[in-house]
Amino acid sequence: MSTITSKRVTIGRPAGELFTFLQDMHNFQQLLPKERISDWQSDGRSCSFKVQGAATIGLELVEGGTPQLVRMKATDRSPFPFTLDVHMQEEGGRTTAWQEFNADLNPFLKMMVEGPLKALFDHIADRMVAVHG
User: Fold this and answer.
1) Could you tell me the pLDDT band of residue 29, with boundaries at 50, 70 and 90?
2) Are 50 and 37 in contact (CB under 8 A)?
């Protein structure tokens, strides 16, 4: 199992607000790098988009029963199966958030995607701060 973890960011709001935002996949587009994303589609519970120079990615919400975790998984539109978890820890009205990507990747594919995915997840983390303060 390959795991890629984004940087941790602090958001000046309660975890419940970020949790609610992430429960609507229409909002996920606000977290992506606009200049590298095309063909965006969402129905609220899932989304898909094409990453410039890469594949189409599909994400679907699978868990989200607590304000500490939102779990998404790849849909059949993605090139390989994976999960993407957004972890949230609230303390004093502020929330620390980070993402954890897990997939079974062969060594060659891992070498190809690890850097770009880490950069994407770090961008998403930064956008969570920008959108939610």
Assistant:
1) very high
2) yes
CA–CA gap between residue 75 and residue 13 (Å, rounded): 30
Domains belonging to the chain, first-starting first, are 2-132 (3.30.530.20)
- Could you tell me the CA-to-CA distances from 61 to 4, 5, 103, 113, 119 in Å, in that order? 19, 19, 16, 22, 22
- Those residues whose C-beta lies under 8 Å from the C-beta of residue 82, and which sit 6 or more positions away, are 73, 74, 101, 102, 103
pLDDT (0 to 100) of residue 37: 92
User: Which DSSP helix (H) or strand (E) runs through 109?
Assistant: helix 107-132
pTM of the model: 0.92
Tokens of 22: 């992430």
Closest residue by Cα to residue 121 from 38, 57, 43 = 57
